[in-house]
Fold each of these.
Amino acid sequence: MGRRDTQMPRDIETERRKMERMEGSGEENQITEGVIWKQLLLFFFPILFGTFFQQLYNTVDAIVVGQFVGKEALAAVGGPTGTLINLLVGFFVGLASGATVIISQFYGAKRADKVGYAVHTSVAFSLVCGLGIMAVGIFGAPFALSMMGTPKDIMEYAVLYIRIYFLGTIPNLIYNMGSGILRAVGDSKRPLFFLITGCVTNIVLDVILVVFCRMGVAGAALATIFSQTASALFVVVVLTRTGEMYRLSFSKIRLDKRMLARIVRIGLPAGLQSVMYSLSNVIIQSSVNSLGTDTIAAWTAYGKIDSVFWMIINAFGISITTFVGQNYGAGKMDRVRRGIRECMAMTLVSAVGLSCVLYHFGFYIFEIFTTDPAVLEKGMEILRFLVPAFFTYVTIEIYSGALRGIGDSWIPMILTMVGVCILRVVWIVAAVPLRRTITTVVFSYPLTWSVTTVLFLVYFHGYSRLGKGRR
């Protein structure tokens, strides 16, 4: 395609004039003008609750199949299948973060024409990626599960669940991209409402299909894709009916090469970072698989419990990315730096508080998933080893999110690749064969978080555009 940003369509020109009138009337974009900590929290909570309900999709699946089908089904739904899903879908979500950054910067700079091109290119990109990921997931899952050493007693469950799950890839990606567009312009509430509706749908369908219709893991997978489709439809309706500059028009959905290049340039490092995390987790899952079904089930249940931490830190990470993106686009660098410091402090307090709660009350949460004594014992061994180390990851998330907000994505990706992924794989390959226990396996997490935190501190404060003294 040729250059498409030399002329401004009539509806975008109208939007540009409206933004000029808004600026002249004294109306404020609160993200670039309001009290920093309040704006971060106002943005944080809808994202947190949205992430919570998004996590509930698979968590409810795990609870229902664990209680009504058995520990083999629990191990299949959340263990190796979850790792593969995160590998493929996580790559796209990382790429989509490039669109969020681009749109937030153009929106903060009041560039209505650029926002329009970015929105339509992002949606087209979601459709293309959705088809590709769906094909890879459906046809490649059995091979990948086998290569991970998935035990035979859960293989049938795992293949069935993951193949059905990937049939719903396109609505899943549309929802993620659409909600990212809304968050980029400061709207984090409506994606939350849509996700809550989808989650309630998932719970109801889980009970109907698994408990009453006795469809097992197939019912859990179907409930998930039907509910994700509902959330995607809500997002599309909002984007097509809005009168703002980010309005979606079906006739304009196409891949603009220049805009796609911008999105990929910023989002590709985040996507590769997600892939590297997932690949290292695949290796870890393979080590866990070698320890038996009880340990796999315990690891699966722990993954649902510690998802609370990842929900919180992910919400702060998205908040600081959008905050930095809009304020950077508006040229307010002092506000950017103050926002990073305040977000870091809030995230650290949240991580320490959650660690204390889970350490002392985690057993009762485990019992929601299973009452099997062997699984509970393994699960608490994992939990009490890992949760005290949560605070070591905070710096990585906030600094990488802030750097993505100004378009600096490659260096954070390299730091993460070296400090987390490569080091984690080296630990699994070198240390686990010497002492094959779950504690040896999971030690790779606090080890790599701590090392990567040091790398980020050195880069951020010594070399980045956001570091101290760099104006």
Amino acid sequence: MKILVVGLGLIGGSICKALKKYTSHFVVGCDINHDIEYSALRDVAIDRDFDGNFEGFDLVIVSLFPEAAEKYLRENIAKFSPDTLITDVCGIKGEFSKRVKTLAEDSDLRYLGIHPMAGKEFGGYHNSSGDLFLKANFIIAPFEDSRESDIELLKNLAAEIGAGKIVVTSPENHDKMIAYTSQLAHIVSSAYVKSPELSLECGFSGGSFQDMTRIATMNEHMWTDLFMQNRENLLYELEILIENLQKYSDALKNFDSDEMLRLIAEGRQLKEDNLRHRLGQPN
């Protein structure tokens, strides 16, 4: 295929590098910063930088923040050749995907969103890697009327770049699950580092601290966009977390060792059951 990747940050740059490393597709890279395009050319991460011609692509992968992705498509989607498949890698689908689908269909194009579950603490092209998606979960979020051939095309592409478990689900279910598995964790990490003890942690922290704080370096512009576009699902998960945290707080306030033991055992059992389920073992 001839593929255009719009936005050569961490994810877009990694997609380009993975496509060139593991496939024979022809890759064109487009970024607002032309120095990044030149870097991608030097790295042989792309075959050609974008020359302003929107026609002739089989697949367009928009790798921008949700707000920027929608703006880009509103301004340019009508310039692509008819029947081009448009996808995006945004961490939000739902209403966003519905709006983009309408834009695509108004221009005789096809749209189907994806979400590779991969990342790093730091973004940008220079942190990108052709192996970023190896064994990573990869979500495809079609609509009921999406073409089966488009779903298969994106599943095959995900497999080509090394994805592990490939999940096909609705845009609405994507947002519901991502609120719990990704967005809530980012809020917890951001809140966790606001302790006054943060500046004193050196020499006292281990793996648990690193695990809890790794994603606090998230890009505030992108994640605010993601949180606000998934507000209801995220609020639901956040309120459940606050309710559960209150139980631990109450046990401490009340010197209630039995309740603390019960809460910890309950959490342990739930996680052990989750691990057995992942491995296909009976509870």
